Amino acid sequence: MHTTPSLPEETITTWADHCRTLSNAKRLRILLVLHSTPTPTPVTCLAKQAEMSVNHASRALVYLAGKGVVEGKRWGKQMLYSLKDTPVVDFLTYIKEAPPTDVE
């Protein structure tokens, strides 16, 4: 019989929330762009690199900031965004390096 190591409920809940955050393709695309960008970046640049409208990128970034995954700083009239140091960064590194596999 195979046993599963038990994890604290808080850990399970946190990772379930991270998975919900990453489950949207637009948000994941923005996160992958941010992961490749070493400095805080304006929404317009992120939108262009992620190949989406500024409106969609802005909405995704506001959501991600609310989840604590990205940080936004105002610079004049622009918002600059960067990744916060969370376990999501490790996950983004993993998916960029690992080949996709089919799940059956």
Automatic annotation (TrEMBL):
<protein>
    <recommendedName>
        <fullName>HTH arsR-type domain-containing protein</fullName>
    </recommendedName>
</protein>
<keyword id="KW-0614">Plasmid</keyword>
<dbReference type="GO" id="GO:0003700">
    <property type="term" value="F:DNA-binding transcription factor activity"/>
</dbReference>
<feature type="domain" description="HTH arsR-type">
    <location>
        <begin position="7"/>
        <end position="103"/>
    </location>
</feature>
<dbReference type="InterPro" id="IPR011991">
    <property type="entry name" value="ArsR-like_HTH"/>
</dbReference>
<dbReference type="InterPro" id="IPR036390">
    <property type="entry name" value="WH_DNA-bd_sf"/>
</dbReference>
<dbReference type="InterPro" id="IPR036388">
    <property type="entry name" value="WH-like_DNA-bd_sf"/>
</dbReference>
<dbReference type="InterPro" id="IPR001845">
    <property type="entry name" value="HTH_ArsR_DNA-bd_dom"/>
</dbReference>
